[in-house]
């Protein structure tokens, strides 16, 4: 086990391994005033979106399904307002995993979470931000932003992007600099369809990502949404494609990782980062 973790750390330090981060990387993020944990997992997001109340079992299965139900009943603006209220709040603490990753100065990182924690860390140096978008009349399914070390500026093409700058990819959205969200089933259907067609990743990144390895951390791979996103994001990866940190993988996850060329490592991202387990939240 230790040999594998050391190999991953070496790849991260060399910039040849790309983290693909999920909800568990925010397990230690709490609110300064309430002490509550930031909603990040599927269940947490559903409760936050529904005023703390659970929904029907079929809707509790996965956040996009619940978000679609709320959108149909209360309108898309209800989903947008809830996500902005949660993630635009400046009172959230810093994630230990974010602090660790930022110290590595990685050239490319994919973050499925919708918070601004990594962006705040990356704001200390120029970088490129890519944010997923969906259900638009025409055009590409991403927004490009160039951060100059002070603030974000919108870009419409690759021409304004420094190809050597670090890349932070937020496919599911962020409130900063402009709130954009991939949340409901309809969002994901559109986004993943265009991702498969090559319209959700900038051309410069398609070239840059060839032959890289990936580290899946902080997320299970037992839901189709995450599995489809991962399959397309690691297109063109090295062989083998990298590693998936899952402490107790099930058979479905084992088969999926084998198909993608990912080595399953039965460990948590905090073990890799040398961080303690998060304390219980209010």
Listing every helix as H and every strand as E from the N terminus to the C terminus, the arrangement reads: HEHHHHHEHEEEEEEHHEHEHEH
Radius of gyration, taken over Cα atoms and rounded to an integer in Å: 18 Å
Instruction: Report low-confidence residues grouped into runs of 5 or more.
Output: none
Tell me which oligomeric state these chains represent.
single chain
Give the terminus-to-terminus CA distance: 33 Å
**How helix-rich are the residues, as a percent range?**
25-40%
Work out the count of structural domains.
2
Beta-strand percent range = 15-25%
Strand order of the largest sheet: 5-4-3-6-2-1-9-10-11
Overall mean confidence score, pLDDT: 96
Indicate the structural class: alpha/beta
Outline the secondary-structure elements.
Elements: H1 2-14, E1 17-21, H2 42-49, H3 57-60, H4 63-74, H5 76-87, H6 96-104, E2 108-111, H7 117-122, E3 127-132, E4 142-147, E5 152-155, E6 167-170, E7 173-174, E8 180-181, H8 185-196, H9 203-208, E9 213-217, H10 224-233, E10 242-245, H11 251-260, E11 262-265, H12 269-273
Parallel strand pairs: 1-2, 1-9, 2-6, 3-6, 9-10, 10-11
Antiparallel strand pairs: 3-4, 4-5, 7-8
Helix pairs in contact: 2-4, 4-5, 4-8, 8-10
Provide a short characterization of the protein structure.
This protein is an alpha/beta fold and 282 residues long. It is built from 12 helices and 11 strands. Strand 9 (213-217), helix 10 (224-233) and strand 10 form a beta-alpha-beta unit.
Task: Output the keywords.
alpha/beta, single chain, SIR2 family protein, 38% helix, 282 residues, globular
């Amino acid at each position: 086990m230790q040999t594998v973790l050391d190999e991953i750390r070496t790849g991260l330090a060399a910039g040849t391994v790309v983290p693909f981060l999920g909800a568990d990387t925010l397990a230690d993020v709490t609110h300064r005033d309430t002490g509550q944990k930031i909603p990040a997992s599927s269940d947490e997001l559903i409760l936050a979106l529904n005023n703390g109340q659970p929904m029907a079992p079929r809707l509790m299965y996965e956040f996009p399904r619940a978000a679609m139900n709320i959108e149909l009943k209360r309108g898309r603006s209800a989903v947008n307002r809830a996500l902005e209220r949660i993630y635009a709040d400046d009172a959230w603490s810093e994630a230990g995993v974010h602090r660790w990753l930022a110290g590595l100065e990685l050239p490319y990182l994919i973050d499925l979470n919708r918070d601004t924690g990594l962006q705040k860390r990356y704001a200390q140096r120029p970088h490129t931000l890519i944010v997923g978008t969906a259900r638009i009349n025409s055009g590409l399914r991403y927004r490009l932003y160039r951060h100059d070390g002070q603030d974000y500026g919108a870009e419409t093409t690759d021409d304004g992007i420094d190809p050597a700058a670090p890349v932070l990819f937020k496919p599911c959205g962020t409130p900063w600099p402009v709130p954009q969200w991939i949340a409901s089933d309809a969002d994901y259907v559109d986004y993943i369809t265009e991702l498969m067609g090559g319209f959700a990743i900038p051309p410069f990144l398609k070239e840059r990502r060839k032959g890289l390895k990936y580290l899946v951390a902080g997320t299970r791979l037992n839901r189709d949404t995450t599995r489809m996103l991962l399959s397309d994001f690691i297109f063109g990866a090295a062989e083998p494609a990298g590693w998936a940190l899952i402490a107790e993988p099930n058979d479905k996850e084992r088969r999926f990782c084998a198909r993608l060329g990912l080595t399953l490592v039965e460990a948590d991202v905090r073990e890799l980062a040398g961080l303690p387990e998060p304390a219980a939240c209010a």
